[in-house]
Every structure is written in structure tokens, then in C-alpha cells.
Amino acid sequence: xxxxxxxxxxxxxxxxxxxxxxxxxxxxxxxxxxxxxxxxxxxxxxxxxxxxxxxxxxxxxxxxxxxxxxxxxxxxxxxxxxxxxxxxxxxxxxxxxxxxxxxxxxxxxxxxxxxxxxxxxxxxxxxxxxxxxxxxxxxxxxxxxxxxxxxxxxxxxxxxxxxxxxxxxxxxxxxxxxxxxxxxxxxxxxxxxxxxxxxxxxxxxxxxxxxxxxxxxxxxxxxxxxxxxxxxxxxxxxxxxxxxxxxxxxxxxxxxxxxxxxxxxxxxxxxxxxxxxxxxxxxxxxxxxxxxxxxxxxxxxxxxxxxxxxxxxxxxxxxxxxxxxxxxxxxxxxxxxxxxxxxxxxxxxxxxxxxxxxxxxxxxxxxxxxxxxxxxxxxxxxxxxxxxxxxxxxxxxxxxxxxxxxxxxxxxxxxxxxxxxxxxxxxxxxxxxxxxxxxxxxxxxxxxxxxxxxxxxxxxxxxxxxxxxxxxxxxxxxxxxxxxxxxxxxxxxxxxxxxxxxxxxxxxxxxxxxxxxxxxxxxxxxxxxxxxxxxxxxxxxxxxxxxxxxxxxxxxxxxxxxxxxxxxxxxxxxxxxxxxxxxxxxxxxxxxxxxxxxxxxxxxxxxxxxxxxxxxxxxxxxxxxxxxxxxxxxxxxxxxxxxxxxxxxxxxxxxxxxxxxxxxxxxxxxxxxxxxxxxxxxxxxxxxxxxxxxxxxxxxxxxxxxxxxxxxxxxxxxxxxxxxxxxxxxxxxxxxxxxxxxxxxxxxxxxxxxxxxxxxxxxxxxxxxxxxxxxxxxxxxxxxxxxxxxxxxxxxxxxxxxxxxxxxxxxxxxxxxxxxxxxxxxxxxxxxxxxxxxxxxxxxxxxxxxxxxxxxxxxxxxxxxxxxxxxxxxxxxxxxxxxxxxxxxxxxxxxxxxxxxxxxxxxxxxxxxxx
Length: 915
What we know:
The chain is an alpha/beta fold.
């Protein structure tokens, strides 16, 4: 600690959580500390499971006794001492949002400020007359008349149902009537029958004071009308917002009117979702070359539904529909009839209505969900709001139009906003808040996101950066932030912005602890901690803790990585590839009508800055287009003209970062197909045979073996009021998942719980004599996942870990021997290096090479320069994100790509290779 005060540091002593080896660490406050090390070295155990977890415990201790009764049952971090710990906030990569109502706009509160602005400033426009609906008071109308009719003669009148006697008592004596469209002034007498408009004043429009006083009286008495003599024009002015042409009346808006999450504002048809679920003809009739007799309606090809098909065939003939020609050759009228039915047969819609009555059955709900797709709500056009809310506009745009804007577009719109002096004053604070939030979102590299983008569709990295921007706008101080790889999913171009943002948090007086592998972030750390030297049981030790300068002089994996210069022999693959899959004129989302070639049996890396259209091209267009043709996936691809070369593809597999399971019972060992073999080993033990245990007794899903209290989950869920639900270790099995008698069966002195608690590295040694298990477990270790536990709940895995487990599963199921081939198999990987250290990326690339050696085709969406430098074919999109992206900047091999001047990726790759 040198000469610094003890209070300037977070002090940790005897940390033993997970694989941490009783380590002592100090972390300086108000500084940026980076924790690095290879996968499984203990980074998350220190940052999240020790520092953040202890911070949460101390927060809990301040709660009510009711909350503490349950919460104190949670296991506390295994550490001897943590001193000078500040309030902690963790910003993780995992995106927990599952609902469709949360959007970028609502999550950042930008939409909430827009609702306030629209309720105060927006002008209603009549949907019938397309004219602005105004409400008036005496001061506004005085100003309006002086501006438009200065010097002209006018009658100020009001329309009322009040009796003439009452009006005379109040001092009014004259009325204005029209005969043959000519104005006539009459005295208020009992004999007058036609009087409707009472005169308040007759004047020339130039005296503001007199005009205002007269208008004040008129507004108080009834509906105001102004007759301009020179123009022979009678004008209507309402104190409430009413259309002067058609009489449509609307209420004064409140912020709630513009909320799609409240019945007051939500579209009554789509309930504020912006889309409706409709049955999709392309899913119900996937192959339009088939005739009705051949089974064009695929859902009726199941044996249990044959009756529906037979009655259709009989009724169709009676209805004049040819059942033996391809479905595509039927007229639209005939296709409609097949769905609606008639007196001769029940249509597809009748069948679906019958199913809707049985939605209480799970399998029926699953079936219906597969044949429906979301379509934009035709009533609100996807704007989520009722028509009343969409009548209010600012500069010609309603709030739905603004909600469609990206962060960068909204920033431009606000800068170009034209408001009156009064409107500017009213909206000044909300606009300031919005502008500040937009600035922070741009700084964390999210300018391409639209306000209406659903939070559940964001990647873990995008979700984390969104939360970072929220924290910046909150301007908290004396807080400890724990972040998990904030550069995930970011192009190197945006990394500098993230570093500046992290530094800003420290400038506010906060301590920032970041788990990170990125070279630039590490080089900008005020304090560096490297854990290792290996992963799993070989990790958990402090390799280095201190300032960056001294670290660079050490001989550690990370230090050597920072100092290392990449000396790659760039290969020319220009004329190597013969077979291509060609995607023509892709123009979905922000793609600009691009034609792209993907070579077979090659490693293609698709690059470009965040929001440039990589996922739109590869996942939403290419993958879905191929999968549709192969009959693998029925989800509709984004718009494109044609795709050629699909005949060369036998299978296409998208390996993304979605979870491998949604419950704690899902584990890596089950997903990888290893658990069956392990259960068989335990079932073959003498003790198991004596007790009559089959392999099912060693399954967390079997009543024969799992703990009856927690049903094999290892925890009990406690529902909390006002807090998130708690998951407490099961008191019966102590979190071990199995019955006591099952745990008494042992193999090599280990029971099934102890084996599931092993890392794959430990399991490799434990099952070394078993050739099958040893080879499969070794492959997992080669992918850098040796530190994971066999029985680790799938819910605790990061997106990157889940993705690499899927890659393992593909290799285990596909590569069965030396002569096996993967020719014609296309693998698509979406940012597979998430969470990987430089050393682990080398292991990952070796696995990719194994796939290529088996003639597979691998397409990777990636920002990592280490992976890009190994590409055989590069597709670069850009030049920017959002609307300014979607252009094809380059496709080809690496040699020509490095010469490119208009590509951010090429620029940073040149710098990387020179480093």
C-alpha cells in the first residue's frame, strides 16, 4: 500500500470461494482495476462470488427482520475478511429480461421523458381533416388575432344555451344572426327566436388589452366565435381541444396516454405489443409443390389427424378444387376456401379453432406456437398505442414515429427540434435528460439501437453496456462497480469509448473492478490482478497484483500476451475456393441490397462494427434461408432475392449463446451425453446392485434417486414480497440433490454428488481408465472448458460457455472416427470468443481447424482480431452501424483486405499485426 492510507483500499484476506486458494488481495478505491487470467482461473469467483456477494450480504443486513429470516440462510462468501467495502453494483453480461414489453426506450427512461414532453408540447392533429386541433384561452387567442387580423373589424361573440332573460340580466344586449349568409346585429328581446350568438364586443383588432378582456368574458360564457367583417369569415375557437371542422373532441393528454404498458394508452388490438400472433400459411403449407392429396397441409399428415385431411379431399372435389395439382397452382380464392371451409368440408381455420379450445394442454400450446408468427399490428402499425395517442404530434411526428428512431437519429431530431419559447421552457429539463442519456449510449457504442428494440433481443454485451450508460446518468459516487467483460460484442473501434466511460465512473469517485481479457482495457488499468496460473484446480492463485508498469516486466501468460508481436504468415486463399453459396440482394433490416459469397470448406469471418448488419446477414437471412430450403427451420428469413449453391449443403447448424437449459437440472454433463455412461458406472457397483438401484437412481430427473424435498434441484425457491425470489440450499439433502441412500453408493471413494462437483479437468484424471469418457472429456478440456463442473447448473453458465459446450457437443456427435467427414455441413458461430483469454482463443482455433480438416464449412461472426487474422475468407460490413451500415465493404482473402482504407476492421487489424 506504499504511503497510502488503509482506507484508500478494499482489503480482502483469506478468500477461498470456489477454487480461490486462500488469497489476500488489495484493490485501490476510485481506480480502474482489471482482473484477468485464463478461463477458470478464478476471476469471477473473486469479483462476483466474493466481492459482489459480500456487498449484497451487507446490504441485506440493513433490511427488515422479515427479509433477513430467509436471506441469512443463503451461504456467505468463503473469505476471512473484507474491509473498506463500498455498496456494490454488478453489471453482468447475462440478459435476464424475458418479456416483450421492456424496450431500450423504457429501460433507459428516454421514452418516459418523451411521454412527458408529448403530454405538454405535442399538438393534436385531427385524423379525418388532417388539421391541427387547438385549445384556446384569452391570451393565446389575443396573440393569434393580432398576428393574423391586425387592423380588421371583428365581432367577438359566444354561443350559449342560456335563456335570453338571464343574458339580459348579465348585461348582454345584442346578438349576431345570419340571414342569407349576411350578418345582422339584433337586440336581445323576448321575441327573438333565431338568436344563437351573443355579442360581447365589436372592435378593430389592434387594442390587445380590450381584446383580451372581451375574450376572457366570451370564454367564460360559452363557445367563442370571431366574425372578421372584411373577410366575411366566422371562426370557431374552443377552450377544449375540438376540431373546428368536424367537431371531433379529445381530452387533454397525460403522460399515461402515451404508455403502451397501460390500458389508457395501449392499442386495444395488440394490447401494446405492436404485433399480433397470426397463423402462418408458409408453415402450415411448407412445400407448395405438393398437392392436397400428396399432403400439402403438413399439419394433417400425422396419423391422429388423418380424418381432417380425408374430409378436406372429399369436400374439395365437391367444391371444384383440384386436389392433384401443386398447391401453388390453386387460385387465391381456392386457397382462401381451404382455410375458411364451406358447407362441404371443415377448413384449416376450423381445425385451429378446435385446438384453441384445448389450449389448457401443454402440447397443444407448443403446437400452436410453432405455426404462428408475429405480424405487425394493422391497427397501430406497430406503434403499440391507441389512435388517440397517435393524434398528438411534434413537428409532424407522433411518439410512435420517434420510438422507431435509433439513438443517433433521435439525437439529430432533438437538435433540429423547432419549439416556441414557451414550449422550449416547458420541455427544457426532459430534453436535457434525454440528450444526456443519448450521449452516454453513443459513448458505450449503442447508437445503432432503436428505442423500440425489445430488451430481450439484446445480447449479453449490449445489455451490460445499456446498464453502464444508465449508471453514468445516475451519477452515483462512493460505489463499487463490478463488470464482466464490458467490451464483449464491441468492435475495437468502440473499445476506446468504453475505457473512457470506465474512467469517468472512477472520476465520479467510484471503484471499478472489471473482469476482462481485452488488451487495450488491460493496458489502461490503474491496477491489475492476474489469477492463475491455470484453470480450475490449477488456478485460484494470485500471479500478480499491482500497477501495470511492473507487470509488463514479468513472465506470465497475460504479460507475454501484452508484449507479444504477432508474426503471422498471411496466406493467399484467393483462388483456392471453387464452391460458393451465393446470397443475392439481401435487403432486410439495414442491409443495402448486397450480394455475398460464402465459400464451402473454409473459415469465413464476418466482420464490421456493432450494428453494421452482421447478424442480420448471417443469422436472420443466410441461415434462415438455407434452413428453410433444407426443411430444418420454418422461421422466415429477412428479405433477399435468391440463394444459390444450397445443393452443396447437407446440414446447417447455428451455434449461438442461448442457454443449453433453463433449469438447474440441465448440466454440461447431460448436454454432452456423458451422464448416461457415468450413471451406468455407478449402477454397476456392488452396493448399487445390492440395493437394487438401476442407472435411473443416479439421475437428478428420476424419483428413484432425487431428493423428494427439492426434486433434484438442490435448492428450495422462496417467494419474496418486494424482492426477487430466493433460492435456498435444500435442508434435506444440503444441496446434494440425491437421496441419502443413493449417496452411499461410491465409485473410487466418490459418490455421484462428488463426481458431479468435479471439474472436467479433475474428471479427466478420475475416469482416465475409461477410454470413451477420457477422450470425450479431453476434447472439452481442449476447448478451454476444463474448469467447468460436470454438474454445474446450466443457469449459471455464461453465453460464451454455453456456446462452446454446444461446439463440443457438435464435435462429439459428428467426429466419430478418423475417416468421418463433415463435408456439406455448415457451422455458424456468433462471437464464440466471448469470455476467452488469448490462450483459450488459440485452443478454440485448434478446434475450428479440426472441423475444417473434416471438410466442414465454418462461418464466424466476430470482432476479435486474433480470430479475424486466421480467416481464410473475410466479409466486412459497414462502414458504420444502424442506417449508415449494411453495405458490403469487402469480401475475399486476408491479403487484399489488409490494403483496404475505408474499413475500421482493416485498420485495426493492420495495427494488431504490427503490434
